[in-house]
Design goal:
The chain is of the alpha/beta class and about 300 residues long. It is built from 14 helices and 12 strands. The chain has helices at about 15-20, 35-40, 55-65, 75-80, 85-100, 120-125, 130-140, 165-175, 195-205, 225-235, 245-250, 265-270, 280-285, 290, and strands at about 1-5, 25-30, 45-50, 65-70, 105-110, 145-150, 155, 180, 190-195, 210-215, 220-225, 240. The strands form 3 sheets. The chain has a 7-stranded parallel sheet, sandwiched between helices. Strand 2, helix 2 (about 35-40) and strand 3 form a beta-alpha-beta unit. Helix 1 (about 15-20) packs across helix 9 (about 195-205), helix 3 packs parallel to helix 5 and helix 8 packs across helix 10 (about 225-235).
Length: about 300
């Protein structure tokens, strides 16, 4: 297939693009800068210059492809505090893809979750501004698009991970001199190695049915305390409990520290024959690459 990939030079995209090429797909990667274009070209993909604001170009690129894998997101706007604005940009992009792909039975793979039927989990899903985008993608199935949604765990880890949850925790630990967790640290984060996630995307493209909801967790939930203790060991600093009332001050700029979810993936594994083979999160932390240099 000829596959158009947004976010092609990013953390996950930089693993997905080679995975697709190695298995016979032709890839066109969106690049908004010279550096991104060079990275996409170095992976063996064709470069399409543009960004998420160029809707006409995105429609044209989607129309010229057999499939679209949409990984890009306006993280800068989100981190500046305007999550709703970033989600609105994403919605406009998905709508542009829908206009280009409707009635073609071509593939659109997006990131997100659709309602599960569990009231508590659905309330958490719907509280995320990106949930409306996920529903919009799922709705395109009825318009003749082979849509697939991939739920990406909060932690996708590897040497490619420069700005995710783990690097943020490590930076906070270095800055404060302690590796913290909130309360008893029992809240859980699902995780997956970036390369295992890339293989899931390739398997999804090759064989997932239209309307599939996939779950990309290799580990359904790891406690924050275990993660913090491993970080503390690697940095040779104490791992300590931060009282809930002090968490906002200690973990400045990181409101997700108390996130507590699990992400079982047995159905996804059975559907696609996906078996993660790369190190789990704790083993990856113990490998040391997260501590070799700071991205900040």
């Amino acid at each position: 297939m000829r596959v158009f990939v947004t976010g092609a030079s990013g953390h996950i995209g930089s693993a997905v693009v080679p995975e697709l090429i190695q298995h016979g797909h032709e890839v066109v990667g969106l690049a908004r800068s010279d550096a991104s274009a060079a990275a996409v070209e170095a992976m063996g993909a064709e470069v399409r210059r543009g960004d998420l604001g160029g809707l006409a170009g995105l429609r044209e690129a989607a129309a010229g492809a057999d499939a679209v894998i949409h990984l890009a997101f306006d993280h800068a706007t989100m981190m500046a505090g305007d999550f709703a604005g970033a989600a609105a940009t994403d919605m406009a992009v998905v709508q542009a893809f829908g206009e280009a792909l409707a009635g073609t039975d071509k593939t659109l793979i997006g990131v997100g979750l659709t309602p599960t039927g569990d009231a508590k989990r659905d309330a958490a899903i719907n509280a995320n501004p990106r949930s409306a985008v996920s529903r919009a993608i799922a709705g395109l199935t009825e318009r003749g698009v082979r849509t697939i949604l991939v739920a990406i765990p909060p932690v996708a880890h590897s040497s490619r991970d420069q700005h995710g949850f783990v690097p943020i925790l490590i930076k906070i630990a270095r800055d404060t001199g302690v590796s913290g967790y909130v309360g008893n640290g029992a809240n859980r984060w699902p995780a997956v190695h970036t390369l295992d996630l890339a293989r899931l995307y390739r398997l999804a493209l090759d064989s997932a049915p239209a309307g599939a909801q996939l779950y990309g967790a290799a580990e359904s939930g790891i406690t924050l305390r275990e993660i913090a203790e491993t970080i503390g060991h690697e940095l040779d600093i104490p791992a300590v409990s931060i009282p809930a009332g002090q968490a906002a001050d200690h973990f400045k700029g990181f409101p997700f520290v108390t996130l507590d979810i699990t992400m079982p993936s047995a159905e996804t594994r059975q559907l696609l024959g996906w078996e993660p083979v790369h190190p789990g999160l704790i083993a990856d932390l113990e490998h040391g690459h997260y501590f070799a240099a700071s991205p900040w």
